[in-house]
Amino acid sequence: MENVEDLVVNILMEKEYHIAFAESITGGLCAAKLINVPNASRVLNESFVTYSNEAKMKYLNVSKQTIDLYGVVSEDVAYEMALGVCEATGAEVGVGVTGIAGPSTDGNVPIGNVCFGVCVNGVVTTQIISFKDIGRNNVRKAAADYAFEMLLSILK
Predict the structure, then answer these.
(1) Considering only CA atoms, which of 30, 12, 13 is closest in space to residue 21?
(2) Secondary structure (3-state) at 98
(3) Distance CA 156, CA 154 (A)
(4) Residue 55: what are its φ and ψ, rounded to 5°?
(5) Which of 71, 77, 86, 131 has its CA 20 to 30 Å from the CA of residue 110?
(6) Three-class SS of residue 23?
(7) Distances in Å between the alpha carbon of 92 and those of 25, 63, 155?
(8) pLDDT digit string (tens) for 118-137?
(9) How far apart are CA 94 and CA 79, in angstroms?
């Protein structure tokens, strides 16, 4: 039985699309999940872990104004991350993930809130999900899993 990552890789191959990830909270977990799948090299050339705001601005062209206005954990930043990673890599599909895993927060965003952006051929869909304070690594894993579920539903 195929898992969601297998399905995503197969759909990407069928469509002859490439994917790139722009990860903050997940720190490379999304790319790692994809790379577990045979033939991943046919759909993934490169991805970014942009943990700092400066890295998001430098590599993904996330606007400082967007970060200042909406906060780094926002659908607006996830939108710019997803679009920016497509522009930076030439991929048809880009996924941006930003959130708060804990154990602490800046006070404005609850622990467990994660924002997702998925860009397919220039069209970006965003979503925010609260995984609650289920522990740092559990939030990160749940976010990576959810990114693939969201991606699969958009690609189908």
Answers:
(1) 30
(2) strand
(3) 6
(4) -65, -40
(5) 86
(6) strand
(7) 22, 21, 11
(8) 999 999 999 999 999 999 99
(9) 10
Contacts for 2-8: CB closer than 8 Å, 24+ residues apart: 4/145, 4/148, 4/149, 4/152, 5/33, 5/34, 5/36, 5/37, 5/148, 6/37, 7/152, 8/34, 8/37, 8/148, 8/151, 8/152, 8/155
Q: Which domain holds residue 132?
A: 4-155
Q: Of 36, 29, 26, 27, which Cα lies nearest the Cα of 5?
A: 36
To the nearest 10°, report the CA torsion of 126, 25, 100, 91.
-10
**Who's near 20: CB < 8 A, 6+ residues apart?**
44, 45, 46, 47, 48, 85, 86, 88, 89, 91, 93, 94, 95
Give the C-alpha separation, 139 to 104, whole Å: 13
pLDDT in tens, 11-57: 999 999 999 999 999 999 999 999 999 999 999 999 999 999 999 99
- Quote the number of domains for the chain: 1
Question: How far from chain centre, in Å, is Cα 155?
Answer: 15
- CA 73, CA 70: separation in Å to the nearest integer? 8
pTM over 0.90: yes
Element spanning 143, H or E = helix 136-155
d(CA 126, CA 101): 19
